[in-house]
Amino acid sequence: xxxxxxxxxxxxxxxxxxxxxxxxxxxxxxxxxxxxxxxxxxxxxxxxxxxxxxxxxxxxxxxxxxxxxxxxxxxxxxxxxxxxxxxxxxxxxxxxxxxxxxxxxxxxxxxxxxxxxxxxxxxxxxxxxxxxxxxxxxxxxxxxxxxxxxxxxxxxxxxxxxxxxxxxxxxxxxxxxxxxxxxxxxxxxxxxxxxxxxxxxxxxxxxxxxxxxxxxxxxxxxxxxxxxxxxxxxxxxxxxxxxxxxxxxxxxxxxxxxxxxxxxxxxxxxxxxxxxxxxxxxxxxxxxxxxxxxxxxxxxxxxxxxxxxxxxxxxxxxxxxxxxxxxxxxxxxxxxxxxxxxxxxxxxxxxxxxxxxxxxxxxxxxxxxxxxxxxxxxxxxxxxxxxxxxxxxxxxxxxxxxxxxxxxxxxxxxxxxxxxxxxxxxxxxxxxxxxxxxxxxxxxxxxxxxxxxxxxxxxx
Length: 460
Known about the structure:
This protein has helices at residues 4-14, 23-27, 49-62, 114-122, 140-146, 153-156, 191-195, 229-241, 254-264, 284-300, 312-323, 325-329, 348-361, 388-407, 426-429, 432-445, and strands spanning 19-20, 42-44, 66-69, 86-89, 96-100, 105-108, 126-127, 163-169, 175-179, 204-211, 213-214, 218-226, 248-253, 274-282, 303-308, 335-342, 365-371, 376-383. The chain is α+β, with helices and mostly antiparallel strands. Among the domains are: 96-214, Uridine Diphospho-n-acetylenolpyruvylglucosamine Reductase, domain 3 (2-Layer Sandwich), CATH 3.30.465; 218-326, Alpha-Beta Plaits, CATH 3.30.70; 332-407, 2-Layer Sandwich (Alpha-Beta Plaits), CATH 3.30.70.2740.
């Protein structure tokens, strides 16, 4: 609990209108997409790096935690105030500062909504590829903190591939700039890459320089339905080996398909095992040729049905299949454990079969979907948290799933981060020596453990 004097000091820094301490306001900043809740002692809404610097200097002096927060859309608990303290909401810092059409870069504040930024640059004929599923409300700052990906990662990469430079307030209050407004730069250590994906534990990002691309001339969207997951997985491998890199290559398994059909009544058949949602982009003639080549590959590898969108309206309808999964799953059970494992593309079918067997072994409902193009599978274990026995079975299943994934040479998190939800499992993937190195970096930058404490590394 913060003292009255500390609240007054924060008010002096931030202004009376930019601090909240009433419980009904604090509740709004106590949870994220994990639906876990931790009440902060106060929430502040700074407008620049200088105000954040003063808040962090006060925190180091008085010893209270500071937790940065974007839109609270994360799936790993990275923005939760697990030890109370002050939540620094970056929602006021929401300006697109510049879009440089000559050099194909932009500078933005962390509170800019990802989708709104994409639409702004597209109006100028430019393209910002990272597209997390929450793009309509998640923020660029949160994307940087988690190194967000999305369906287009198979061709275009993830957030870290587009961050050229940052303005950062370090945990002790110093303000530094990393990187540059150029595509090349090797002066000193790459602090930009260190900060991207650090989950708000090493600094608070206050400005971001982003690389842009020319907007593709044309896009073609299609989906293919398979009666056997193995055929779908083989199709993914054949598409990639044909030297065609789709802009997106998504998949849904039979349980996801059934959920979506029961939820939306779109007209999907029940007697199928997998669906691939595929998109190619680029020059118009190239896109047409690639779409036809992919159609042939799908048919040659056992696709039961293929639909190709004739225009943007129909493409949007096809994407509704993919975006309907999360709300559809809620009809199965009230709660879900959502993991974002990644395996080599050639192991997708083995991973899904293995996950299904583990779920069946523990008498759990499971549905899988995700980014087949880069091997990123979103494993959903559907549970009722009020059923303690079921919850314990789910925890055992998750550990076994992680063991399976690591045995395939994969990783336990492709884009959601570690936060608190995966913290108990980090030692399964990283060696003690690697974790110790990371802890030492944290200790150097945050000697008083002020910034976003209780995340990523178990305290043992």
